[in-house]
Amino acid sequence: MDENTLFDKLIAFTAAVHQVKHEMTQGIKPEGITPVQYSMLEYIAVSQPVTLSKISDCQQMSMPNTSREIKKLCDKQLCEKYDDPSDRRKQYVRLTGEGERVMKEAFGHVGARFLTRLQNASEQDLQEIVHAMDVLHSRVFYTDK
Amino acid sequence: MDENTLFDKLIAFTAAVHQVKHEMTQGIKPEGITPVQYSMLEYIAVSQPVTLSKISDCQQMSMPNTSREIKKLCDKQLCEKYDDPSDRRKQYVRLTGEGERVMKEAFGHVGARFLTRLQNASEQDLQEIVHAMDVLHSRVFYTDK
DNA sequence: GGATTTGGTTATCAAATGATAAGTAAATGG
DNA sequence: CCATTTACTTATCATTTGATAACCAAATCC
Which residues form the HTH marR-type domain (chains A, B) (predicted)? Predict the structure, then answer.
């Protein structure tokens, strides 16, 4: 396998995913939420409950800025903090009911848009697509570190 | 195929790609280039030559802002504009030699980081990965519209 | 050939984001 | 038990980004 071919494909592929995701999420962002906040909500939605430090790490933003943005999201009642009983320095963040609702709706819109791309795919095509995602997710785009 | 499973996987997958790409490109950004500018350079690198309107469309930023940022990149000698002889309103953008060099280096760093994720993959694994990218790129994450 | 559209520019403003310094309180480690 | 580290907060500032209005010149459209 030619290494450069692989790299070129990786670059092109990640760029494409990035762009399509960008298109898909255009206009769905809940009222009054900034892009960074949306991205945090998305991360919380799939990883909750999660500490501020973890959010800071994974979203690659400084703790002060993470703290500020989470505070804003809490003010908007989209998420809430609660103490870790075993370590009182730590605070976990989770979505509120409203936050769940908002993100569910956002994900629904994204889903609907993806659906238009998949509407003339056969059952077999879908199987293949799911398999491809599993392969790449587990082998290349894993995020645990 | 359960539609929700597919959506959940799509959401999780795009989030993972996004995050990994973010990690991969951390710290590689050439001196004095902002995130938006880097993203534009990346787009130009894989799509050149390309008009300002097209960049504006695909990067989903307004023409005034596109114009401003491209101007900055031209000032930095990373890209250059030239006229379309058949339509004198249009201007194409392409990387300069220096721009090519800078992006090649950036892509090289990203490639190297991906390599560490793939170092214990067999030839067969790599084939499978490339195939998976081809499937997803052509069926789900195509960007021509 | 005059109105409209297309492609792009300049200027300006507000908001979002990133970075830094300085602080608190709880846990951990000799 | 004192020093250090971890988890998080508050405040502040500069830069980036997004949005809008007003403009020019070339192309196109009746």
Answer: 3-138
B68, part of any domain: yes
Which of B13, B50, B120, B142 would best serve as a mutation to test chain A binding (most A beta carbons within 10 A)? B13
CATH number for the domain harbouring residue A44: 1.10.10.10
User: pTM for the full model?
Assistant: 0.86
* Cβ–Cβ below 8 Å for A142 and B16: yes
pLDDT tens-digit series, residues A54-97? 999 999 999 999 999 999 999 999 999 999 999 999 999 999 99
Residue A80 is assigned to a structural domain of this protein: yes
Q: Is the distance from CB of A15 to CB of A73 less than 8 angstroms?
A: no
Q: Is A48 helix (H, G, I), strand (E, B) or coil?
A: coil
Number of structural domains, chain B?
A: 1
pLDDT tens, residue by residue, B59-112: 989 999 999 999 999 999 999 999 999 999 999 999 999 999 999 999 888 888
Angle at A60 between CA A55 and CA A63, to 5 degrees: 60
